[in-house]
TrEMBL record:
<protein>
    <submittedName>
        <fullName>ATPase</fullName>
    </submittedName>
</protein>
<dbReference type="Pfam" id="PF13635">
    <property type="entry name" value="DUF4143"/>
</dbReference>
<feature type="domain" description="DUF4143">
    <location>
        <begin position="175"/>
        <end position="332"/>
    </location>
</feature>
<dbReference type="InterPro" id="IPR027417">
    <property type="entry name" value="P-loop_NTPase"/>
</dbReference>
<dbReference type="Pfam" id="PF13173">
    <property type="entry name" value="AAA_14"/>
</dbReference>
<dbReference type="InterPro" id="IPR025420">
    <property type="entry name" value="DUF4143"/>
</dbReference>
<feature type="domain" description="AAA">
    <location>
        <begin position="17"/>
        <end position="134"/>
    </location>
</feature>
<dbReference type="InterPro" id="IPR041682">
    <property type="entry name" value="AAA_14"/>
</dbReference>
Length: 385
């Protein structure tokens, strides 16, 4: 079994908070994490997509209050948001650590009742697809990049299964999950927009262009993308634009959260088709960014930086109001820096720059510029935690 990096954080949360929330996309390993954890007391697991478990909650107050000595795990909580006020009431009556664990495939932004009802009572932890530190050599970087980090396709040797898995995964989101979260949309439009976002992966977000291309109003496009983001399908990388003296790019970049899903939507199923596709560079960028995000502390911030004068850095990591690391992401065994990287370092006062590339051995490109692989960079920023 693969031990997830958040295991220690999860253990701390269950031991200290009355409610722990594990959030992340479907099939990312949330249920496996909580079912394989060793609890200090008896636990009860309820899958809120299972009719027999839902029936137990016909009178939820009676049922949940009858087992105060158990840790109660509620999976896919987004299907029963009306439980949040009751959970708050039960916690306030008996505020002990590890009372409830809730699992959700939607962010607290969509679960508004959660953020309103459980403020001060819940600790949220986000679970990402598998990363290189968790796999510890079990898969090659290339395999994880091509097939994505969702455990089932990542660990499968069958290309047919991987393609079938992503087809089912995406269909489920479009036809069932997004509508159940409240997206008032025609599934065919959701699919069309998702395909377009795959072709624009890594680009700066332009709502107007998307709306014109799809014949949708600006508010409609924003609504769709907000749901995609808060259902953990897409993520934004914000621009750093504190320096008002520069002509800065301020729009966020938009990325798929998992390269396996991105590749499926673009008809990419193996290394050859990936390297023969024009998106290979932005796909590598997507892979690196989400590997990095999966190991950061919850309060860390990440950005990109670009000016209209050509200064640019792909990835900036900020911790405690200071730069933790800055990196360029290059799909090359012999990466080169452009003038824009040096300009950005000067603009931001960055003393050291990393270049993340598919190399095995790290080396210094210049005294203050180091080239290293993805796993080495993850270890670098993890050791700074």
């Amino acid at each position: 079994m693969i031990e997830r990096l958040i295991h220690t954080e999860f253990e701390f949360s269950v031991s200290n908070f009355p409610v722990t929330g594990i959030i992340g996309p479907r099939q990312v390993g949330k249920t496996t994490l909580v079912k394989t954890f060793t609890y200090k007391k008896s636990f009860l697991y309820l899958d809120l997509e299972k009719l027999s478990d839902l029936n137990k909650l016909n009178d939820p107050e009676l049922f949940l209050s009858s087992i105060p000595d158990h840790t109660i795990i509620l999976d896919e909580i987004q299907h029963k948001p009306e439980l949040f006020p009751l959970i708050r009431s039960l916690v306030d009556e008996n505020r002990i650590p590890g009372r409830f664990i809730i699992l959700g495939s939607a962010s607290p932004v969509l679960l508004k009742q959660s953020s309103e009802s459980l403020a001060g009572r819940i600790n949220y932890i986000e679970l990402y697809p598998l990363n290189l530190l968790e796999l510890d050599g079990r898969l090659s970087i290339e395999s994880l990049w091509v097939n994505g980090g969702f455990p089932e396709p990542a660990l499968s040797d069958s290309k047919k299964f991987i393609q079938s898995w992503y087809r089912s995964f995406i269909n489920s989101y479009i036809q069932r999950d997004l509508p159940s979260l409240g997206l008032p949309a025609d599934p065919s439009v959701s699919r069309q927009l998702m395909m377009m976002m795959a072709s624009l992966n890594g680009a700066t977000l332009n709502y107007s262009m998307l709306g014109k291309s799809l014949g949708l109003s600006l508010p409609t496009v924003k609504t769709y993308l907000s749901f995609f983001i808060n259902a953990f399908l897409l993520t934004e990388l914000p621009a750093w634009y504190v320096n008002v003296k520069k002509r800065l790019i301020k729009s966020p970049k938009i990325y798929f959260r998992d390269t396996g899903m991105l590749h499926y939507l673009l008809g990419i199923s193996n290394r050859d088709s990936l390297f023969g596709n024009i998106i290979v560079g932005t796909s590598w960028e997507t892979f690196v960014i989400h590997q990095v995000k999966s190991v950061l502390n919850i309060d860390d911030e990440i950005y990109y930086y670009r000016t209209q004068d050509g200064a640019e850095i792909d990835l900036l990591i900020r911790r405690d109001n200071q730069w933790l690391a800055a990196a360029e992401i290059k799909l090359s065994f012999s990466p080169k820096l452009t003038k824009g990287s040096y300009l950005a370092m000067e603009d931001l006062g960055i003393k050291k720059l990393f270049i993340i590339s598919p190399v095995e051995d790290r080396y210094f490109y210049e005294p203050n510029v180091e080239v290293l692989g993805v796993k080495a960079f993850l270890l670098e920023i993890s050791s700074s935690s």
